[in-house]
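User: Here's a chain of 168 residues. Predict its fold as C-alpha cells.
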Amino acid sequence: MMNGSSLRLKERLGLSGSGHEEEERGEAERVPGLAKPGVCVAPDPEVSSVSGRRRFSAAYKARIVREADACTEPGEVGALLRREGLYSSNLTHWRKEYRKAGEAALADDKRGRKVTKNPLEPEVEKLRRDLERTEKKLAQAELIIEFQKNLCEILGICPTGVSTEGQR
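Assistant: Prediction complete.
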C-alpha cells in the first residue's frame, strides 16, 4: 500500500503508473539504477557551491517593463513578477532606466559601480592643458635667463647695465 507522499514523489520522478502495477513489480524495477531490492536512492541534497548571478538582457528588461505597464487590473504586476521570479525593486529600477533613455539604458551588462561623469571634467581638462603650456613657457624663460647670465659673465658685462665695480 502506498501513501500520498510516495505517490507524489514517484510522479515527480516520472515513475507514476497504476498503483497496483507498481506494487507488483520489485523496487529495483521501479527505480532506475537501483541494484539492490529494498534500498531507496535519495536525490542528492548537495547544492552547488557556485551560485551564478542572474543577468538579464536589455530586450528581456524592456519586455518586462512593457508588460508591467500594460497591466491594468490589481494584482497583475505582482503575478507577472512572481511568474518571472523578479523583485519589485528590479522592475522599479528598470522602469526608471527605460524612461530615461529607452532600451539603450537597459543594455548595461557590466557589473559593479557604474562610472558617472563629472560635469566639471571638461573645464578641469582645459585648465590642466593651460597649466602644462604655462609651465613649458616658464621653463623656456628660465633657460633663456640662465643663458643670458652666463653670457654676461663670459663677456664681463653687468646684466643690469650698471657697473658694480665702481661703487665699492
